[in-house]
Amino acid sequence: MADTAGIADWARLGIADCNLLLGKFDLAIDGYKEIIGSSSSSAPFALLGISEAFLRQGKLDRAESYYKIYKQNYPSAPGSLELEAALSDQKPAPNEGKIPKAIKAGYFIQVGVFSKKDNAKNCLRKFKTQNYQTKMEDYDEDGQRYYRVLIGPFQDESLARKSKADLEKSEGEEFLIFIE
Predict the structure, then answer these.
(1) Which residue range forms the structural domain that includes residue 15?
(2) What is the DSSP code (8-state) at residue 28?
(3) Of 68, 83, 98, nearest to 161 (Cα)?
């Protein structure tokens, strides 16, 4: 009987993982929660899965809380570098990036800096064809002219940070947030 229950939990884990990959986050979360409640040997994997599902939904607090439970209950188990990186990227450092609400600011994501204007224009077109609102700015640094390509504006910091994370994931590069 115990072997059958264990096999069933591993099967539930596989189904929950498939739902996660298909973007059916609520179904995945429900499946992972069933496993966590059963005290199965697959529970650590379910905790990681539920953390990932909440992260993909943009529910960072929930993702972090389940990941903390995983780390507390299984301290010798390996951590998730991807999850830890995503969670740390989403949180500004103390006193960093916070602007008083009375100040109107636009948030932009810098997706490229180029010394050749044609290269900047190509980058600008690339993101415009992906339906991003873009702009190009030029500036001088140490006697050299540069062209910065920005996506935005975003009305608030959290939306800019989420969009930045999505862009970094899809483009495989790191970007900066500018405030104007």
Answers:
(1) 2-90
(2) H
(3) 98
**Residue-wise burial string across 104-116, b where 16 or more C-beta atoms lie within 10 A, e elsewhere:** ebebbbbbbbbee
Domain presence at residue 97: no
The answer to the question of residue 68 being in a domain is yes
Domain end point (choices 30, 57, 90): 90
pTM above 0.85, yes or no: no
**Both 113 and 86 in a single domain?**
no
Residues 24 and 145: their CA atoms lie apart, in Å, by 47
Residue 139 CA to chain centroid, in angstroms?
A: 30
Question: 3-class SS at 75?
Answer: coil
Tens of pLDDT, residue by residue over 125-140, are 999 888 889 999 998 9
* pLDDT digits 0-9 by tens, 91-107: 554 545 555 555 556 89
Provide φ and ψ at 178, rounded to 5°: -110, 145
Count of domains observed in the chain: 2
Bridge partners for 109 per DSSP: 151, 177
